[in-house]
Amino acid sequence: MSKRQSGSQESFSASQLPEYLIITCLDCSVKNKVASKKLSLNPRCGKCGTLLRTEDML
Ligand SMILES: [Zn+2]
Questions:
Q1: Residue 33 C-alpha to ligand 1 middle, in angstroms?
Q2: Measured in angstroms, how far is the CA atom of residue 51 from the centroid of ligand 1?
Q3: Claim: this prediction has a pTM higher than 0.70
């Protein structure tokens, strides 16, 4: 049994959003590169751990 997924799941229509967004942390002003697919998962700042506000981005 050889299951090979040759990128069949990659046909997600991501034509509207860029793959990554730059979100500036409100706490420490560090710019965080967040995958647009993870915006709904409450991404945190990579430096201070503050939740990044993404409401304004969408
Ligand atoms: Zn921060």
A1: 12
A2: 8
A3: no
Using CB atoms within 10 Å of the CB of residue 12, give its burial: 0 to 12 exposed, 13 to 18 middle, 19+ buried. exposed
CATH architecture entry for 18-57: Roll (2.30)
d(CA 6, CA 29): 40
* DSSP state letters, 1-58: ------SGGG----SSS-SEEEEE-TTT--EEEEEGGGGGG--B-TTT-PBPP-GGG-
Which one is predicted more confidently, 3 or 20?
20
